[in-house]
């Protein structure tokens, strides 16, 4: 939990109103307790969460990202060198992606890794694909984009401080298929447990009786009250005493914090 808080602060984010997604063999075991510590009220455990990385690898569209160093100060911006670099990166990335997606309409994403001169770390700054079209406009666009990204992270900028770019990145990707819209269940119903097991509940600081459910038997609309365990072949989802769970239309487990806890 401490690492998650530090990571969120480093990126200027407040995670309390976010939804946590738990995937992998171990994450569903710990997600509810982690959500309790972080103040997160909603957790999604996708169908097939235990092998989520493998599913993602097989389904993700082809893409290729390259990062190259080309240090320069913004007050000495060299449009020709940057344009030449991006042309080279684009060709290299397109050649790789075209091998996997020959007829796809590809998208291009650019970024610059920038900082104030003298700093020891860079801020990734998204760039519009045509932001290197003209030298003067490029300098203005780069400065504005950097200041927006820096302010989002640190809440301020440093007026008059020189800016430099260390590296440039370009990513080419095949299109992502549109997600299928799935209707929510029309009604919720209490699911039938297959047993009861005693387990230690970290939030309650004592052992509790956990109802046990077989995920393969749960259908969209089934509801599970915590504390409970939802078991499957690749993992087990712990629904702590402070959460309830329900199965949505895509067979994901949705954990929701109880209103009075």
Write the layout of secondary structure elements.
Layout (H helix, E strand, L loop, with lengths): L1 H9 L8 E3 L5 H12 L3 E4 L6 H8 L3 E11 L5 H22 L6 E10 L6 E5 L7 H20 L8 E11 L15 E2 L4 E7 L4 E9 L7 E4 L2 E4 L4 E4 L3 E5 L5 E5 L4
Parallel strand pairs: 1-2, 7-10, 9-11
Antiparallel strand pairs: 2-14, 3-6, 4-5, 4-6, 8-9, 10-13, 11-12, 13-14
Keywords:
four-stranded antiparallel sheet, 5 helices, elongated, alpha+beta, 261 residues, 2 domains
Give a verbal description of the structure.
With 261 residues, this protein is of the alpha+beta class. It has 2 domains: 131 residues, no CATH class; 112 residues, Dna Ligase, domain 1, CATH 3.30.1490. 27% of the residues lie in helices and 32% in strands. The protein is built from 5 helices and 14 strands. Strands 1-2-14-13-10-7 form a 6-stranded mixed β-sheet, with helices on one face. The chain is elongated.
Low-pLDDT runs: 131-136
Number of helices: 5
| % residues in beta strands | 25-35%
Shape summary: elongated
How many whole angstroms does the radius of gyration measure? 24 Å
H/E element sequence: HEHEHEHEEHEEEEEEEEE
- Overall pLDDT confidence: 89
Supply the helix-strand structural class: alpha+beta
Oligomer: single chain
Cα distance, first to last residue? 19 Å
**Biggest sheet details:** 6 strands, mixed
Estimate the helix proportion, in percent: 25-40%
Q: What is the number of independent domains? A: 2
Number of E strands: 14
């Amino acid at each position: 939990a401490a690492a998650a808080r530090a990571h969120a602060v480093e990126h200027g984010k407040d995670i309390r109103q976010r939804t946590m997604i738990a995937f992998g063999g171990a994450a569903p075991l710990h997600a509810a307790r982690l959500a309790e510590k972080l103040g997160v009220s909603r957790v999604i455990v996708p169908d097939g969460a235990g092998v989520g990385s493998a599913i993602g690898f097989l389904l993700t569209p082809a893409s290729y990202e390259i990062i190259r160093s080309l240090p320069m100060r913004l007050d000495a911006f060299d449009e020709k060198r940057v344009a030449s670099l991006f042309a080279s990166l684009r060709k290299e990335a397109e050649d790789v992606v075209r091998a996997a997606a020959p007829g796809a309409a590809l998208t291009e994403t650019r970024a610059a890794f920038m900082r104030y001169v003298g700093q020891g770390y860079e801020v990734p700054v998204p760039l519009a694909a045509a932001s290197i079209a003209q030298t003067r406009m490029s300098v203005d666009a780069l400065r504005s984009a950097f200041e927006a990204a820096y302010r989002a992270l640190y809440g301020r900028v440093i007026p008059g401080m020189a800016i430099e770019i260390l590296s440039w990145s370009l990513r080419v990707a095949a299109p992502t298929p549109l997600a299928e819209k799935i209707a929510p269940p029309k009604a919720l119903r209490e699911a039938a447990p297959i047993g009861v097991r005693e387990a230690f509940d970290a939030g309650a600081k004592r052992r509790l009786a956990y109802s046990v459910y077989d995920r393969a038997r749960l259908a969209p609309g089934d509801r599970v009250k915590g504390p409970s365990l939802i078991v499957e072949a690749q993992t087990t989802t712990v629904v702590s005493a402070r959460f309830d769970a329900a199965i949505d239309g895509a067979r994901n487990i949705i954990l929701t914090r109880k209103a009075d806890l």
